[in-house]
Write a structure and sequence with these properties.
Strand content: 15-25%
Number of domains: 2
Number of strands: 14
Largest sheet: 8 strands, mixed
Order of helices and strands: EEEHEEEHHHHHEHEHHEEHEHEHHEHHEH
CATH architecture of the largest domain: 3-Layer(aba) Sandwich
Length: 474
Amino acid sequence: MGLNPTEVLAFPRIRAIVRDNGTAEVVVAGNSRTVAPAESLQQLRENALALVVGEAKTLKRAVRVAIDDPEGQGELIVSPDGSKESVNYTPKPAHRGAEAPTTTAAPVAAAVIETLPVEPAQPQTDTANSTATTGTTMTPTPSAASAAAPAAEEAPTRRSLKETSFLVSAPVLEPATQGWRGTLTRLGLRMDPSQEELSEREDIRTVSQHWPGPRTIAVVNRKGGANKTPTVVMLSAILARYSGAATVAWDNNESQGTLGWRTEKGSHDRSVLDLIDASTELLSPSTNAAEIAKFVDHQTADKFDVLRSDENEEGDHEVTAEEVDIAHQVLTRYYRLVVMDSGNTARAANWRRMIEHTNQLVVPVTAIEDRAEAARLTLQTLESRGGHDAELARNAVVIVSESTDAKRSMSGDALKRARDEAQRIADGFAPFVRAVVRIPYDPALVNGPIRYEALQPATQRAWLAAAAAVAAGF
């Protein structure tokens, strides 16, 4: 790798902790991520380092990670390509009572001292009498205890208090709350959760975490009707609800978008252009954080805000790249998470500048051929540009929604064809992006304002999985 360790930033602080009880965690800036279990200590280490590599890929640079496992402590430099370079490593001292090597007498003697009781010393006169009785001169022979004394000084006989803890490190598995297992638990018979419930808990944990600094998500597809706006609303709602992070959904259409039509409207008619005009005041250190409410519409049930696109009737203003910069600067001062809706023109100045600010790309697509093809071309365009754009494309999350046409017909054959087509499209994208998530059809997403609580349980669960896949890229 050839990196100078002094050139690698120590922020965010990353620790990889592997325990001899078979558990491990990676802590990034105070946020703990549980490592997948493994059959061996070495595999557990590799699983932990895989999470660190993912963080390096997200940051697009090498990171420092402090290592603490049963055999020693140290520090590594980990690069996005997975290469690792050791900065330092200190083996942990052997525990008291551990089996000592037999190649030298000293460690063996030390072990004897630790395990055998000390005999009371015999009076000096007894030794003298014994010598006189035999009539021979005896050379005093060092006892086992005295011979072991120098070795006892070399071998550690105490552990540092820093190396132990009375806290339980393994997470406590909460009992089941869902299905028949949850019913039995409520009746007093404690049951472990099912794999489905454990998976849901892990998705909730992923979307509930906080991360250092603001994050920007861009939802893109150059074809209209690809489910961009519902995707923006659902991701914003889930991330805001579970993480509690201040979240804004921003309609970055170059002229007039539809995000404002599908969400709850506030008591004003201001748009992104008004926010840009007031940017000097909003960026002033003396401005109160509550002033942003003049320009956004709060979603009372789903806990996020909406910044609308310009809705003047003439529609004679197209947002410029410089205006995107200004609006993004304002929003990342007031919000930790910015979810951007977009227009259909990948060549537009505001679209390209949005991509420059993006940390995580999301590509929604309905299970219809032309929408899927438009999504593929969108990713191909970004891939061809190289650099940051190509990395976004490779790390993208594709969200495939089932077609509404088959659901309306309610035909069994049509439903099966719709599911098969959604799966075919999902399988087609899978080799080229980080994650693909399928969303079932739900009438609550078709028309009118979108509310998370209005969705069917299966749809809510699918969107939670999609939000977790997005948050995993932060």
